[in-house]
Amino acid sequence: MANQDYYQEGYYQQDPSGAQPTPPPFEPEKQKMFSNIFSFKGRIRRLEYGLTYIAIYALSLVVGFVVGIISGIYGLDESSATLLVYIALLPLLYVQWAQGAKRCHDRGNSGWYQIIPFYIFVMFFGDGESGENEYGGNPKGE
């Protein structure tokens, strides 16, 4: 009776000879965006990298604005305010490095490639490797 539910739902293909049902062909699952932003492992698409870059830029502006208000209220000198900004930006820097490493992995390169000057343009506009590579499956699900 349970097998009938699978046939009705389309999970298994019915064999006309009455043999055991065959499961559907394997389809790679598409990776969800921002599912693991703190990890340096795996691959991400250009869209996720670009959105991360925009979000980090916007959050950096917010951090600077908030620290400016706090330093004005509490009368912090410039060096203390600058130190506070740098400390507040450390988590954002970590996320940017992690996402950059995964974008490099999508291109088939080591994460260290992101420190090459102007390589950011390759990460933004260059296509990733199709199929699976040494860093994991294709984030597009191909």
Structure commentary:
- The chain is an all-alpha fold.
- It is built from four helices and no strands.
- Helix 2 runs antiparallel to helix 3 (78-106).
Secondary structure layout:
Blueprint (H helix, E strand, L loop, with lengths): L1 H8 L36 H29 L3 H29 L12 H7 L17
Helix pairs in contact: 2-3
List keywords for this structure.
4 helices; single chain; mainly alpha
With helices defined by DSSP (H or I, 4 residues minimum), what is the helix count?
Answer: 4
Oligomer: single chain
Q: Given the helix and strand composition, which structural class is it?
A: mainly alpha
Distance between the termini: 35 Å
Tell me, briefly, the overall form.
elongated
The tally of beta strands, per DSSP, is 0
How large is the radius of gyration?
23 Å
Order of helices and strands: HHHH
Major sheet details: none
Strand content: under 5%
State mean pLDDT (0 to 100 scale): 84
Unreliable stretches, pLDDT < 50, 5 or more residues? Answer: none
Q: How much helix is in the residues?
A: 40-55%
Quickly describe the structure.
The protein has 142 residues and is mainly α.
